[in-house]
Each structure stands twice: as structure tokens, then as C-alpha cells.
Amino acid sequence: QVQLVESGGGLVQAGGSLRLSCAASRGTFSTYAMGWFRQAPGKEREFVAAISWSGGRTYYADSVKGRFTISRDNAKITVYLQMNSLKPEDTAVYYCAANNAGVVTIATMTSAGWYNYWGQGTRVTVSS
């Protein structure tokens, strides 16, 4: 069992930046693929970014490509989401997710249903 705890959310003006962190509870974190998803009010949860266990592969939603960067520090068992040039439409609760089983492909890593561990979420609000 892995517990994930997100932090770093808050209120920021459009054009600003935030860095989200997701700390895991176990040292075997290095074998987990990690993803960030978000859910805006009244909308379904959507994929934001994902990173393979080694950090060698990263994937992004088109809406955040070029503005967000996902990274991980396996020594600190933490994954990060650096968010720059934030827009009001980025307002949502951001969730960290992990999976240590199954085939790792772009299709699986971008699918919320593939992940078997989730954090509680951290709220990001971008004002215009």
C-alpha cells in the first residue's frame, strides 16, 4: 500500500507559477509510474501529466504542454508538477496517482483508470 500526499496548491494570478509536490510513503516509489490529474468543478477528472518510474518518459495533455513540467526525485520519493504561465482554465483540484503494475504505455499512463493509488488532492485557483 502506498499513500500519496499532495501539497503546493493555492491561489495565483493568471500568468503566475506554482509547483505541486506529491510525497509517497514508501521507498519502493522508484518502481512506480506517476501521474497528475485534475478535476474542475462540474467536469470529469482529466489527465495532466505522467512520468515513468525512471523519469525517462514523460507525457503531457495538449492543454498544458509547454507550460507544465513533471519530474521526480526517487531519493526523496516525491514527484513534482511545475506549472508556469497559469491560466484561469487551469483552476481545479489536482490529484497525484501511482501505479506499480501493468504495462506502461502512453495509453495506460494517461488513463485515470490505470492508476491504483491516489492522493487526496490539492486545490489550484487561478484568478484572471
The helix/strand order is: EEEEEEEEEHEE
- Determine the number of helices (DSSP H or I, runs of at least 4 residues): 1
DSSP strand count:
11
The portion of residues assigned to helices is under 10%
Into which percentage range does the β-strand content fall?
A: over 45%
Task: Report the C-alpha radius of gyration, rounded.
Answer: 13 Å
In short:
The chain is mainly β and 128 residues long. It has one helix at 106-109; strands at 4-7, 10-13, 18-24, 33-39, 46-51, 58-60, 68-73, 78-83, 92-99, 117-118, 122-127.
What would you say this structure looks like, in words?
The model has no long low-confidence stretch (mean pLDDT 93). The chain is globular, with a radius of gyration of 13 Å. It contains one helix and eleven strands. Strands 2, 4, 5, 6, 9, 10 and 11 form a seven-stranded mixed β-sheet that branches. A four-stranded antiparallel β-sheet has the order 1-3-8-7, with no helix packed on it. It is mostly beta strands.
Keywords:
single chain, 128 residues, mainly beta, seven-stranded mixed beta sheet, four-stranded antiparallel beta sheet, 3% helix
